[in-house]
Amino acid sequence: MNRPASRIVYVNGDYVPEDEAKVSVFDRGFLMADAVYEVTSVLDGRLIDFPGHAARLARSMAELDMESPVTEAELLAIHRELVARNGIDEGLVYLQITRGNPGDRDFAFPDPARVKGSVVLFTQSKPGLADSPAAKAGIKVIGIPDIRWGRRDIKTVQLLYPSMGKMMAKKAGVDDAWFTEEGGVVTEGTSNNAYIVTDGRIVTRQLSADILHGITRAAVLRFAREAQMVVEERPFTLDEAKAAEEAFVTSASAFVMPVVEIDGAAIGTGRPGPVATRLREIYLEESRRAAM
Ligand code: PMP
Predict the structure, then answer these.
(1) Whole-model pTM?
(2) Whose CA is nearest to atom 4 of ligand 1?
(3) Which of these is catalytic: 116, 126, 136, 155?
């Protein structure tokens, strides 16, 4: 196994070597997937879109009646400390907050006054994240049924079906999968938001409980509108996507990633298109400028 060098991770107030980090077997994150998370990318040793990720974390916790054991200012300080201690230039910071360890297994939520949530953060170094070969070639996806629960707007760690989706993609010899509902309507990718470009317009599904409210999505749509591109927030089908001029996905760790093939059908020229390529450039440039 190709393991990264030992990292310093953060667990409930302490910075410890990864081999010494401990979470209880009774932690509800472990037993019930009763936990939320965020992934913030790091470029030039600085955090991309941190305020957006912090705001979505607060919203996820509020939707689940979870009380945050840390403030946003504390979280920012922990992120920065981990980036510094692990010498991250390009990569990401993973953050997870669980409902904590009630000392036993029970479906009912513990009293938050008695049981504090667990907070875990760690870094992943990813040199070449921005200058990615995948972004130059584009990725291939397949469509698979969306059988996830109905609150996909809450960023929980219930990632079994998205993991299965990645495995279905791998088995089909492609890079990722797009989830589809009745009538072949696309919701989003396994770990990203999905877009097409048709008649020169950028089309992506509108926000609702059906999809995660991507932080990269919000930034990319803002930059697209500022660049006078036309954005349409509406559902689209996999068939419409196959006939589109371009397709792409966005996420905190992939930024803007062109999609060049869906279910074996080449999209447009079968090469990354000008809209996705331009949006990736603008996103990286603007995000680097605003990084903290
Ligand atoms: N949808 C899903 C299902 C995801 O898991 C993610 C990434 N966590 C996204 C969309 C993209 O969100 P963001 O841009 O905030 O990373």
Answers:
(1) 0.96
(2) 191
(3) 155
- Write down which residue in 125, 152, 185 finishes a domain: 125
Domain boundary, last residue among 71, 101, 125: 125
Nearest CA to ligand 1 atom 3: 191
Q: Would residue 22 show up in a list of annotated catalytic residues for this protein? A: no
Residue at 249 is within a domain: yes
Same domain, 216 and 240: yes
2: in domain? no
**pLDDT tens, position by position, 19-75:** 999 999 999 999 999 999 999 999 999 999 999 999 999 999 999 999 999 999 999
Angle between helices 72-85 and 50-63 (to 10 degrees): 130
Q: Is 79 in the pocket of ligand 1 (CB under 6 A)?
A: no
Range of the domain at 95: 8-125
Q: Does 98 sit in the ligand 1 pocket, CB within 6 Å?
A: no
